[in-house]
Amino acid sequence: MTENGLEQSQLDEKILLVQDEPKAAGALLDSLRNEGWAVDVARDGREGLDRALNEPFDLIILDLTRADSNGVNFCRNLRQSGLKTPILMLTPRTQPGEKVLGLKGGADDCVAKPLAILELLARVEALLRRARSSPWTWGTLYHLGEIRVDLRRTQVWRRGKQVSLSAREFQLLRYLIEHRGATLSRQELLKEVWGFDPQTSTRTVDVHVAGLRQKLERNSKQPQLILTIQRLGYKLAAGTPPFLPGDQRRTTTDAGVLLPSRPVERSPY
What is the pLDDT of residues 3-55, one digit of tens each? Predict the structure, then answer.
């Protein structure tokens, strides 16, 4: 708990608000930030899709109101891309069918407008709480607690801030991710990551593991992510979903964002 009465996990969480009417975003934005969450704003569906697919967020709040916007297709495209980030969709109270379509399209929750702000904040907290206990991955992007790893772009974030790793540190982290839950001996890591003769006696692995822990763990002396298995080696803590080999997305020029390789319904969002 911080001095302001906020949970540390809440301060670390990042929300993307996709709102195509800037004047309408002000009150909601202030309410969310007053609760301690970091909030970024995307001004239309295209920007929202691009940022959601390429940056780490813990929750997406979707409020597309213009006639040329389509929140249901936005949700559908996100889900077909493999993105598991929770989506809270705001829908007009006068259009109850939109809520049903949103939930079927991939939204995790829907709230009718005009908003009851306390109810909305409670739903935001509930979705974030659920996400904290559900590690997930999509394509080559992994969410491991407060760590995000993009294998394709060789980028790592911790608590929303990018972490600089050396090439060898990243190669080691990648190998741990691809074999998470398995105990990996120093000899195997030397052979597969460094290309050394497994009979070589060196503490190179230990030095690089210590470096990763220093950069990724909250407390490097009591690691929760990269675990030491006494006399055997190391392993990445289990609990992440199955690895999805290869990059399953392609770039589409009509939407300007990444969409899945299989055919999807064409829409501006």
Answer: 444 554 455 678 999 998 877 778 889 999 999 999 999 998 889 988 887 77
Could you count the other beta carbons within 10 Å of the beta carbon of residue 158?
Answer: 19
Contact (Cβ atoms closer than 8 angstroms) between residue 49 and residue 77: yes
Q: 239: phi > 0 → left, psi -120 to 50 → alpha, else beta; which?
A: left
Q: Spell out the domain ranges in the chain.
A: 8-136, 141-236
| CATH number assigned to the domain covering 141-236 | 1.10.10.10
- CATH, range 8-136: 3.40.50.2300
**What would the pLDDT profile of 225-258 be if each residue is shown by its tens digit?**
999 999 999 999 865 433 333 333 332 222 222 2
Which residues fall within 8 angstroms of residue 109, CB to CB, at 6 or more apart? Answer: 86, 87, 88, 89, 123, 126, 127
Output helix, strand, coil percentages for the chain, rounded to the nearest 5. Answer: 35, 25, 40
Half-sphere exposure (Cβ direction) of 137: Cα atoms closer than 13 Å: 22
Indicate the pairing of strand 226-229 with strand 233-236: antiparallel
Residues in the chain: 269
Identify the helix (H) or strand (E) that includes residue 156. strand 155-158
